[in-house]
Amino acid sequence: MRLLSRVPNINFMAIRRPMLAFAVVTTLVSLALVGLRGLNFGLDFSGGVLVEVVYAESVALDPVRARLDDAGLTGATVQYFGSSTDVMIRLGPDAAEGAGQISTRILEALSADGPALEVRRVEFVGPQVGDELATDGALAALFAIIGILIYVAFRFEWKFAVGSIVATVHDAFLVLGWFALLGIEFDLTVLAAILALIGYSLNDTIVVYDRIRENFIDQRRASTVDVVNLSVNQTLARTIVTGGTTLFVLTALFFLGGSAVHGFSIALIVGILVGTYSSVFIASSMVLVLGVTREDLLPPQDEEIDETP
Amino acid sequence: MKPYPTWKFVLLALVALVGLVYASPNLFGDDPAVQVVLDSGGAPPATVGETIATALNDAGIDAVSNQAEGDQWVVRFASADDQLEAADVLRPALGRGYGVALNLAPKTPDWLQGLGARPMNLGLDLRGGVHFLLEVDVDDIRAKAKDRYLNDLPAFLRRENIRYSGRRAVADGVELEFPDTERAEAARSAIVEEFPEIELTPSPDDPLKLSVQLSEAEAKRLVDFAVRQNLTTLRNRVNQLGVAEPVVQRQGEARIVVQLPGVQDTSRVKDLLGATATLEYRAVSEADANAAAATGLAPPGTELFFTREGNRPVLLMRETIAAGSQLIDASATVDENGQPAVSVTLDGAGAKRMFAFTENNVGKPMAVLFREREVVTNYNAKGEPMREQREIEEVISIATVRGVFGKRFQTTGLTSKEAHDLSLLLRAGALAAPVEIIEERTVGPSLGADNIAQGQMAALIGLVAVMLFMAVYYNVFGLVANVALLLNLVLVVAVMSAIQATLTMPGIAGVVLTLGMAVDANVLIYERIREELAGGAAPHEAIESGYGRAFLTIADSQLTTLIAAVVLFALGSGPVKGFAVTLSIGIVTSMFTAIVASRALVHLLFARRSLRDLPV
């Protein structure tokens, strides 16, 4: 079976300027969204308490709120979580400050003479931990990018390193923008997904770059633009197939993996769509914009061979 | 087609075999078991086995096995009912000093265990349980040290007959004032000699003032000691909870992680973690303790206690010479005669009283009393929690006063093991500094089971979808890729089991993601083969150059992902780390399976045939 009957000949690079402009716009929009709406930071980062309980029978939310208020736990967010027997209670970091016992108080308030319930999950994160996680997470992303930059610069050339980082950072920003736009909770697993995306998106970009490098050496007469175009076209089938199979699996994770990995799978699904697009348009266009030449990539020993007639 | 080197076939067969062996423990399931650990750490002595066997025999419970497994003593049972009953029998039979916990012991056969093959660890999110992150109050440690010097220094100067005209607490230490420079200088040199651990700075504008600060090194040492003591204390307390495989670990400078698999009642745990324990040094009364024990009446001014070992009655004077809160340090050492001893350091106030007491009581016995107060939650007939305070009071050592001592002294007359245990106990008794819970994550067992089921389902569906696609899209080569994919899965499980990495929900997500990405290497190769074929290459040639040319691309693309994963592992915590572990392992194994395994298979299938067309 074939997706593409033969290597296509799409002139991707002809529209590189509008596509780059589009990327700049979407990146700016994403940043603006993150800046204006902010990310809906989950408990991991914001701190606070989250208690998820399952009642034996369906329960109304107002009595639950009343019980919490009676126990002096005001300002709690109480909502259904999946069904009318599953209730999630959240208290912000202010209410939870300095109180490791707060979850116990919530559970006592709910279980005293009330309907039978089972605790599914309790999470309490003190404010100091949340701040640290945010810092560590940002640091992890930064160091991952620096490490990749060094590796690509070493294996290829600095222009490729810059191109791949621009594409990768673009992908990460777009996912952040998406999360800000829809207000999806941003927790540690989402951070992990974004870091995984950095790896995936790079993977995709490197495959194209690898072919560009190879074609520069093989196709001695073609122009730089033609080499890049050819490379993108040659790797297109692979790009789509790998993206597709990964999406299959992530879709399975999204629908079947349970709530614990929802954020993770959404981030990666969006990220892989964006990452595939960016490796075709942004990463490849960037090396042209940066003015890559055949000489940039020729290894020294090839030049020697060149001189022999 | 070039011959494929034999050593690669051998390597592949070997890796596949080792992979299967180390992945297999995950298939055997568990036995209900009771796990016995020594509170003071280390492996329980072999005599425990006999005590257990006798107790079980008396109660008429049959054990499947009763033996040391690693650092623990594990008793396996045929059913969960036997297990519960046995735990109730064993707790009183073994008594204090042992932790008895319900556990699920993996049924891995002996020959596999002999190879070090064990099943994967499941994270708390997959089996339910509670995770606490505790922070030791560093400010409290510093403040206490400052208070101590505020008392110790003036007392010391009075003893040395150096008059001072004023003292006051300043932001980070103590400031002393002297009537003249001579005395200021005398005080300075005396203090430097007696308290090498503190820093002295003469006030720049007033030579009569001397300001004393805790040196950074000493502050660090105090915090370090307090955290280590808290670790020991918490470990002992957690052992009493009867939780299988508890984790009590230091994290960073002043934090402690406590993980209790299977625990639900967090309020009880919190009570226990915060419980207070103290230690008291008291004079032993010369009155008849046995008579007092018989009547239950202690003579005036004394109190009746029992020893920890042997439950012997002891009468102690009511007055405390020194208490555990005045204890700064305790360690097992040897005395000047090479005999085992416990070296104890008291703070200023404690040292003063100890000095006064020992001066007048050489040759008389002194006892160490251990008191612990904890809140115990029991359930009444209606299943409602009833909390009560329980006090444990035991005499842990009686020693004869051999000479006068103060700040630092040694308790001798112990065996080396006793010295070790006592020092541990002294340190383990009380929390050296208050701890605060700064993070709590409780996962109910039903959620844990759901997480596993959902994760497995997602992985299975994802795997089947990808395998179907590969088979349809790449024909015979797709089947080869599927074999490689399955081998990859086996290898990931094998590596995770072998290194005893903990599988978490994000970890499963990592495995699922690697499944998606693992096909990439195969896709790269097959697309390349197709291209070579389209370019007019002969089938064997196409296979050769397909694998050959795709290799560099695979290496480059996977290594960049690996870099990201390694950084995640190094800097991440919790779920991020779990995810990074599986992702890194998945990348490495998928490179191996795609390059070595799939190529070997293709070689076996096609090398000996003359082909006109490739089923790709």
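qc> The two ends of chain B are 17 Å apart (CA to CA).
qc> done
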